[in-house]
Amino acid sequence: MSALDAEEAITRAHREEWARVVASLTKRFGDLDIAEESAAEAFATAVERWPVDGVPPNPGAWLTTTANRRAIDRIRRESKRDDKQKEAQQMYDTEPPEPLGAIEDERLRLIFTCCHPALAMEARVALTLRMVGGLTVPEIARAFLVQESAMGRRITRAKDKIRAAKIPYRVPDAEDLPTRVSGVLAVLFLVFNEGYLATSPDADPIRHDLTTEAIRLTRLIRTLLPRDGEVAGLLALMLLTEARRAARVSTTGELVTLDEQDRGSWDAELITEGHELVRERIATGVAPGRYQLLAAINAVHTSVRDMRDTDWSQIVALYDQFARIDPSPIVALNRAIAVAELDGPEVALAIVDQLADSLINYHAFHAARADLLRRLGRSQDSRAAYDKAIELAGNTAETAYLTRRRDQLA
């Protein structure tokens, strides 16, 4: 076997098996530190051994066995090894069964532990990317533009809180599952959004590494919870958004809005998969949640090859439905942008202006106002709105776009 073949096998195994190995060790030893470090050591051993010995027939089993041995060696070396060994063995041998209806997959237990509501959202994101996604601390630190040492402390504090608060390593009870799943999806959506449109001027405007990881983890959740409509909705939303990635930033680094994008460069395979998920959820007849509605809106946008053929009445109707479950100012703002295409900019501006108190520090509010004022010929007011949007925007591609639009005003 060539070194390249072994490297590809290790990369694939890391992508497919990391969460399973960490979850298995967490169940057995009851300690996230032991699970994480032993899994990392197992993969490091694979890097040394597989190019020489060949890739084992069952890479996941090999990695799990090797990681278990590393964990036991570590426990034996520690001063309190007797108590820890007893506790670990007791956990492994006598753990009570999950309540009826719980999903039996150790990866799902791990995800719910990392996304527990007792942890701050930033800690949930970091811990999920490390323990479930297998990203290294430096990779996570770079993704969120913080010092590596600070990210390391954040992850350590999260694990310490799980230990101190005795956060259970289990799937929530049936009555708690929907709420807890929504918390998991919120973490994944946050990761995706940071990749879709980075919030810092120091980052690349689009972070493909983050959007790819968010999609991969959402696919995992979809595999584990195939009947959950919001999981399917979030996956569809991510796929339909990611499909447009190649068309979203110009060669000069400027954001390209939906109406100006080259639709021929959209990823047809991702769009097809996203549309199938949306149709699957519609066919169930179950009232959709927020992610399913956002996916449906994106499905309308990606179902036509020309912006002029967009069914804006359907998009407004979907936003009306969305506003009933989430009557937030941001939803109202997005609905108003669609209304502008259906009923004209004057009607939409009246709606947008009513949101000023709530969204005064939100750059997209000022960007939307600027565009509507431009379309109404109110250049001076539009310029002022563009200035405010530029001041508040953090994404470099978005700032470049807004600056050009402002400078085009008469």
Automatic annotation (TrEMBL):
Q: Where is the DUF6596 domain?
A: 180-280
Highest taxon in the source lineage: Bacteria
Q: Where is this region: Disordered?
A: 76-100
**Residue ranges constituting the RNA polymerase sigma-70 region domain according to the UniProt record:** 20-80
Keyword Transcription recorded = yes
NCBIfam families cross-referenced by the UniProt entry: sigma70-ECF
What protein name does the entry list?
Answer: RNA polymerase sigma-70 factor (ECF subfamily)
